[in-house]
Amino acid sequence: MWPKRKQEFIPEIKHRDLIDIMTEYDIVHKELDGLCGITMFTPCKAIYINTYYGNTEKRKTVIHEFLHAWAFEHGVDLREKDVQKLEQIFYEKYYNES
Fold this sequence. Notes:
Blueprint: H1 15-24, E1 26-30, E2 37-40, E3 46-50, H2 55-74, H3 80-95
Parallel strand pairs: 1-3
Antiparallel strand pairs: 2-3
Helix pairs in contact: 2-3
């Protein structure tokens, strides 16, 4: 069962978290019918990124799917609306900096 989450939870993601996800998950770039991306946990760990979209959308999708994987690996309850909100926060942090 997922642990209870705090309101307005913004995870502290470390560089090693990114490395661990990239080490444990296959990162697959391919055309996906109607999806920007998807994270699979079984039977294998994989993150799929749709090659159809431009770089901005692909970057947002990478952030989004990474958050799903991170939450799964850390036992954190992140609902889809939470992931969407965090995706925007992290995208603005990394790509709209001065």
